User: Fold this.
Amino acid sequence: MAKITFITTDEAQITVEGDSGSLMELAVQNSVQGIDGDCGGVCSCATCHVYVEPEHVEKTGEASEIEKDMLELDDNANEYSRLCCQIEISDQLDGVILRVAP
Amino acid sequence: MKRSELPDPFEQARVETGFGEMNDQNDPVTMLLRLKDVRKTAHNWKTFQSGAEPGRIVVPSEVNIRDTRQIPFEVDPPMHGEYRKVVEPWFKRPLEEAYQAKLKQQINDIVDEVLAKDSVEVVSDFSLKLQSRALTLLLNTPYEESDVWIGWGTHVFRSEGVALDGDKANILYDYIDAEIDRAIENPTNDLYSVLLNSEVNGKKLTKEEVKGVMILTFAGGRDTVINAVTNSIAYFADHPESLSRLQQAPEITGKAVEELIRYFSPLTHMGRVVTEDTQVCEHAAKADSRVSLCWASANRDGNVFDKPNEVVLDRKVNPHVAFGFSHHNCLGATHARQIMHILLMTLAQKVKSIEILDAKDNVEDLDQFQRKVGFDSLTVKFNPSI
Ligand code: HEM
Ligand code: HEM
Ligand code: FES
Assistant:
């Protein structure tokens, strides 16, 4: 079980628990505003864009080449950006804090 | 070769130079074929604009048959974003449960209908009907309206042998004009009425703007959906094992939808007008010339997709651009995905196999390339699960 916190663009804080699936799926199941997951998690739509809080980047690890290519052309992306459909939930993520991108 | 196979005609040019060339009514188009270039160019709206003369970014060009600007399709940022804000919530309605329940009912009914027949011409007796009926949900208009649209046939804009037919396009324009007038007199809660009541930058949308949105909704969502649905039927006819896989593992349906749409790429390419002298793939692109973003080629790019020419039903990472990329990404994608999702679930549940009795390919002539996009007609027999 991992505790995950999403902070939406209007600063609402939502903490939920998950043990499998992707962070995008967890967010959609819990109606986290701003995470749409249009493509169902195959890295094609970028509607699951989050910023990992800097002190937690070790938990999520690095984006793959394909994910980086998607983010490169997103005007709101920065070095903490991830497409959260590409992050699988595991115990390693426990405590992670993610800000939903605008 | 299997009947459902859609070969990739772009591979050699994509690998060797990255672009292709197509003449179109003396306004040639440089087709961009690599995924990275397509994405970059779609993103760079300042140099590669959509807001050119109406009809010019469409290939074949429609400048000679229409003056109405399609909205938001032929508008660039920042105005593009203002229009998108107005229409986006409406186009997300397919995520609502009530919408999905109605769509499910429609698809259930039409699948039952074709299961009862000995032979079905899929394009006109299945895909066109399914698409038209589903569109009544998106527009929130009466179901009976779909009979009118079905009556137009598959090619509202096209006559036999004539790629661009102004008279035929007028059927749609006249229909939409009349519907807008109807909505002005008797507002309901359909899309026409909602648009007439919407404001962009503090100003009510004009009749011409409403028309621009509505035309696009009809034009953009018609051939694309018909093509995706027809190609899906051909695919399952050739791959009954995929039907049983979906029946046993319904959780992969979302991935299967994305993969089929990648493989089919119902919209082959879309143009942009170059605003300043520049380069694409080390090839000069002059101001006021045209390029196109070839989604269909990008989606077979071997630098990105493993086994690009195979349908891998549960492909996990699938960064396809079948619905476009960046600002202008498909507004109807939520609706189209929902149609495909429910269609796949319903077929997996009710259909054991499909036999192809007859097929006539629809091959798009792109000058340097000939691309099979689907079928002009496809006659099949559906066999029920039980
Ligand atoms: C499988 C079905 C579909 C496919 C493959 C598809 C594909 C595309 C693509 C590639 C674009 C980008 C065009 C560009 O960048 O210039 C696009 C835009 C658009 N599509 Fe679709 N489409 C589909 C279904 C629909 C449906 C059902 C509708 C509406 C009823 C629709 C409405 C639109 C609109 C309004 C745009 C323009 C968006 C903008 O410019 O901001 N499409 N579509
Ligand atoms: C007023 C707006 C539009 C008009 C008048 C129009 C006109 C046409 C015409 C004349 C054809 C037949 C071409 C041929 O036979 O070679 C066609 C096909 C097609 N159009 Fe459009 N179009 C419009 C907008 C759009 C948009 C916005 C999209 C997608 C975003 C789109 C997608 C398609 C597709 C996928 C086909 C099918 C190609 C095929 O199966 O051969 N159209 N359209
Ligand atoms: S859900 Fe589409 S890219 Fe993540």
Residues 2-100 of chain A form a domain with the Ubiquitin-like (UB roll) fold (CATH 3.10.20.30). Chain A has three helices and five strands. Strands of chain A lie at 2-7, 13-18, 49-52, 81-83, 96-100.
